[in-house]
Design brief:
The chain is mainly α and about 140 residues long. It has helices spanning about 10-20, 25-35, 45-60, 70-80, 85-115, 115-125, 135-140. It has seven helices and no strands. It is elongated and about 70 Å long.
Length: about 140
């Protein structure tokens, strides 16, 4: 059995806490602390968006003008299942994090697939052709 940080086993630690606080108080605390988080479950959309953001990164590295977030969402919506209810959530995530994520992807892609000069540009990006992106998000980006 694995020891806790105090050098005792879990069973020994639980027995000590029951003696210290009482069985009912321990049970209430264990139930309260074991409950799942309230509210809707967090849905990670970034893996779904990886292909789109990788294309953004490659377009930026190739010097192409990026499409607006709105135009990008139209393309994503066409690919989504009609029953999909996450359009607004995905749009919000793109508005909030597209610049940061695509520049991070550009950095990683440029390490192995582009000349050193483009990799250096990705390390210290000058946003000359990111006009299609939301300006306030560009200003918030920690990579710019």
């Amino acid at each position: 059995m694995q020891k806790t940080c105090a050098g005792k086993t879990l069973d020994e630690e639980i027995a000590r806490l029951i003696l210290l606080h009482g069985k009912s108080e321990f049970r209430e605390a264990a139930e309260r602390l074991s409950k799942g988080k309230a509210g809707p479950k967090t849905i990670d959309d970034w893996p779904t968006l990886r292909g789109v953001l990788d294309q953004d990164a490659r377009d930026w590295l190739d010097g192409k003008k990026l499409v607006s977030t709105q135009a990008l969402m139209v393309g994503i919506a066409e690919k989504l299942d009609p029953e999909h209810t996450g359009y607004d959530r995905i749009y919000r995530k793109l508005l909030e994090g597209r610049t940061r994520v695509f520049l991070g992807r550009a950095y990683k892609i440029s390490e192995s697939e582009y000349p050193v000069r483009r990799h250096l540009d990705a390390i210290d990006p000058v946003p000359q052709n990111v006009s299609g992106l939301n300006g306030r998000n560009l200003a918030k980006s920690k990579l710019l």
